[in-house]
Amino acid sequence: MDDKTTAASPSTRRILAASLAGTAVEFYDFYIYATAASLVFGPLFFPSSSASAQLLSAYASFAIAFMARPVGAVAFGHFGDRIGRKSTLVASLLVMGGSTLLIAFLPTYAQAGWAAPLMLCLLRFGQGFGLGGEWGGAALLAVENAPPGWRARFGVFPQLGAPVGFIAANGLFLLLGLCLPKDAFLNWGWRLPFLASAVLVMVGLWVRLKLTETPAFAALAAKGPPPSVPVAVLIKGYWKETVGGTLGVIACFALFYLATAFALGYGVTKLGYSRVTFLSVQLGAILFLAAGILAAGWLSDSFGARRVLLWGCAAAMATGLLLTPLFGGGSLLLVFMFLAIALFVMGFVYGPLGAWLPGLFPAEVRYTGASMTFNIGGILGGGLAPFIAQSLADRGGLAPVGVYLGLAAFASLIGVLALKQPEIV
User: Fold this and answer.
1) Whole-angstrom Cα distance, residue 162 to residue 332?
2) Exposed (0-12), middle (13-18) or buried (19+): which is 178, by Cβ within 10 Å?
3) Is the distance from CB of 72 to CB of 137 less than 8 angstroms?
4) Which of 300, 310, 341, 354 lies at a C-alpha separation of 20 to 30 Å from 416?
5) Which is nearest to 268 in space by CA: 173, 144, 359, 141?
6) How confident is the model over 313-341, as pLDDT tens digits?
7) Residues spanned by the domain of 10
8) Which residues, other chains included, contact 61 with Cβ-Cβ below 8 Å and sequence gap of 6+?
9) DSSP characters over 61-111
């Protein structure tokens, strides 16, 4: 049986669907929180006389999950490298989905005082903890089952969860904005996307429970017992790969959350566009992210994931220069052009990660290594991106935000340059 036949087999399609489903739920959960933080969490959970201060408080709560993600990466990576990829992925999905669902039932500050934002932050931590083990396991599920020559293309399936989850989240908020009056949306409508997460989690579980273990982990288990403490082995033996991989992730997170969460908040509050209008523009632009991911995956199998990442980092630096003339250009068409360019470029710094990051580490610490680098990079690139960008914009307009994006992309460029082209398994 040749590689193309293997790549199209029913078991392979199930594996790729499972890797896509979990990350789609991840981005759906993360982005419904980001959207709610941009639109409603400020006035509902964080009392203040200043709308800008409320928005900053909501963005600060958004960052909590990024701080929790490395903790989850260590915990789930430990079990993923010791007991297997499948069971660990199921557990991470349950933690993530349960935390998201409970947000739907939270009281507001008017109903419960400071207990309300405290519970919101605790559940946001739970989201991040579960998500810490999600992406790394999904990427390994795809690339450790890939035939030779197909690893980057298999590795884009977890990455495609970003546009799929975004479209589901954005589309639902857009539908609610069209169907509900503003008061109804503020009172109860914002809770519906969090309730809907339960359906997506059940679909993800149904797909994942049918899987078998990956060949790489099965071969590893046959050789002997796994490392007792994978993170200790990682830090001692693969610190350079961990640092370089972490830096390499920064650009994709910065691009995504500046083009989505920050752009939405700024577009509605500062540029004066309606929520429905801006969500519609973002919904169209996210298709360019999917196109960029697919193109990057195809090119990565031909030219190497490292080289494609370097192209993407250089393009991301240039994208920072376009922020002021396009996003602040005073035209909705120019806003759309910037978002489409930024998200297409993001595909080239995000799409290759599914093959590049796992390839930096041997199988015995691969779950921990891929999860740690991805999630620590998420803190540096995305956790505080909306907060920092909003603070910079309040003080100096969009120009310093563009500089911030360029610096984030430069950091990733340095990280990728410092490491050689990896090879998985």
Assistant:
1) 24
2) exposed
3) no
4) 341
5) 173
6) 999 999 999 999 999 888 999 999 999 99
7) 3-222+229-417
8) 37, 41, 45, 46, 117, 120, 121, 124
9) HHHHHHHHHHHHHHHHHHHHHHT-HHHHHHHHHHHHHHHHHHHTT---HHH
Listed ranges 19-33, 41-55, 270-284; the one with the highest mean pLDDT: 270-284
Within a domain: residue 422? no
Dist. CA 231–CA 81, nearest whole Å = 10
Domain presence at residue 72: yes
**CA-based end-to-end distance of the chain:** 21
The pair of structure tokens assigned to 12 is 């392979």
Q: What predicted TM-score, i.e. pTM, was given to this entire model?
A: 0.84
Number of domains in the chain: 1
* 244 part of a folded domain: yes
Structure tokens belonging to residue 138:
């999904």
Angle (deg, nearest 10), helices 239-257 and 305-322: 40
